Amino acid sequence: QLQLVESGGGLVQPGGSLRLSCAASGFILEYYAIGWFRQAPGKEREGVSCISSSDGSTYYADSVKGRFTISRDNAKNTVYLQMNSLKPEDTAVYYCARERVPRLLRLCVTRNFGSWGQGTQVTVSS
Length: 126
What we know:
Layout: E1 3-7, E2 10-12, E3 18-25, E4 34-39, E5 46-51, E6 58-60, E7 68-73, E8 78-83, E9 92-99, E10 113-114, E11 120-124
Parallel strand pairs: 2-11
Antiparallel strand pairs: 1-3, 3-8, 4-5, 4-9, 5-6, 7-8, 9-10, 9-11
């Protein structure tokens, strides 16, 4: 059964750090690009960062460039999102998802991704 499970969210002060994990099962992770998305209350879900299946190409939204780092460990079937210098505007539910087409990374937008996890809450507040 295909499944993505996010973890690592929590409450952190501005300027703090968190590392999110996306554990994959039921498919061969190395064949697929994976994306991290977030949805704040009253807002649409947006792409935060995506990583390709093969050459490690990455994409970051302008709002997180220089602060967030995406990585993957195919041997552990896990994709990570290291988030540093967190800001209150980073508060959202964070989701990971799988590219619909194997071995491709198209635009890092929700319509290209499926098999969504249940999400993990990140709250940045003092």
